[in-house]
Amino acid sequence: MTVWVAVLVGLRLFILQPERCGDVGPAEVRTAAAAAVDWLIRNQQPDGQWLYRYDATGDRDLGGYNVARHAGVAFSLYGAAAAGIPAALKFADRGSEWLRRRLVPAGGGVAVDDHGVTVGIGGSALWALALGERRLHTADDLYDQELRGLGRFLVSQIEPNGAVAERWDPTADQPVFGAYSPFFTGEAYFALARLERLFPGEGWGAAADRIGHYLATERDDAEDWFPAVSDHWGAYGLAETAHWRELTEDELAHAETLGGIFGPQVRYASQRTESWFTHVTRGRQTLGAGLGTLGEGTTSLWLAARLDSRLGHLSADAAERSRCVAGLLVERQVDVAESFGYADPGRTAGAWFQFGVTQMDDQQHPLSALLRTLPILEEET
Amino acid sequence: MNLWLAALLLVAATNPPRRRAELPKGLAIVAAGAGLTLVVLVGLGVAGATALEKLDISAPTFRVAVGLVLLVRGVIDLFLSPFDNGEGLPGWRAVLAPVFFPVLFRPELALVAVAVGVDGGAGRLVFGATLAMMLVVGSVAWLRRFDRALDRMASVVLIVLAVDRLIDGVFAL
After folding, report:
1. Using the beta-carbon criterion (under 8 Å), do B58 and A320 form an inter-chain contact?
2. Is A312 exposed, middle or buried (0-12, 13-18, 19+ CB in 10 A)?
């Protein structure tokens, strides 16, 4: 009997902690997404920049800025507009205008300049994604020239094996070889795959395929990433590719691998509460951005599974993890009532905080994750 | 989980050669205890999915737990001889103790039954658990004495299966 008690109590306390995912439906998720959009609207400056980092406890703007995150927010807002939150479009466009003013000729196309000695490609890749999202859902060709220019720049950053150089050297107008980002590669992959979907026959798909093959077969080893990159952008890219062709065996295997990276993180994150016990045994609750990326990853796998039946066995689990992330995001978002407990409700309502601090991408990634979970929830109801 | 993995898990978690050393000699009593264990295991397996849902435990996390318990059990069985379970109840009540509890109905077997029920379904659970209990009865009927080599072999298989369950659970979507 002692053994039974020890095993069952020990497992419950240390291994089988409750996964508190909550139970949310489309209405709650849509409300949470709209609240995040409202935060991004309220906290955008007239020139298009957003409040970057804010300490709610001390009511302080912590300053700083990041071009890639700016473009990422624009991407999420265009996604919100596509999902039926129309106010998002105007403010995403304002963010895009801020980016357009930073364009410089690069690699036979254009890049978003971040005013560094060398320029990270994240801003360009994410703005291409943002404009691609806009183009896909509005059919408006307003930014087509910029979109294709960004695409040409991204293609110029691809190395022969499919790796994507993290930075561009404006002096030599060439990629900085040998330096790679865990996320820019997937962003470029997704952007070029989206371009193929938007403008078939222009050759974007071949470039996307080179990156996709590299991500599926070499990247983690070649770039020495350990543990393997939790690459939500790569998952987006796979789902996007599945829109215009069947996935290869390597890509199918890569989708499985990504599932094995996202899944345990979601389960672990769902076991974390604000209690001292889970702080000790599971650590603190993750950033809104971190949790959001997991939802982006699982929803992308769900979409890929819908588009390619050979991934059909992932569909139910991807849906379950996506629902879980959405439930956690809804629960952890500061709602309007809670925001009145802070010095500046306008900077807190609709946001996700860790240690009292939020950053613009803490809204970007959760917003995208929530929006992409909506079809899953709507299909079930 | 396919049929053979389910059966192998249930048989290895039962470890019939080791149980042979712990069970009384009466074949009818052992058979009755095995039958009772089978019924309880199937009941657990069938109710497992609902229980996990009520406890907010996902199937992959449960697989991790099962893997860990099986790993510990396998290592203990590999290096230690069977324990003396003490005096059982007299007569037919021995079906309950020691045959059903504590010898056959053990935490690792109960957890495996739930895992097989959740991941493999009731049919595979019934097949695997029936096979395991038949082997228990067979080991009492045909093994003339406790065979430590067979016990160790089953323990090694259990360790391999434990690692498989752990990996499958940790890296599941």
Report:
1. yes
2. exposed
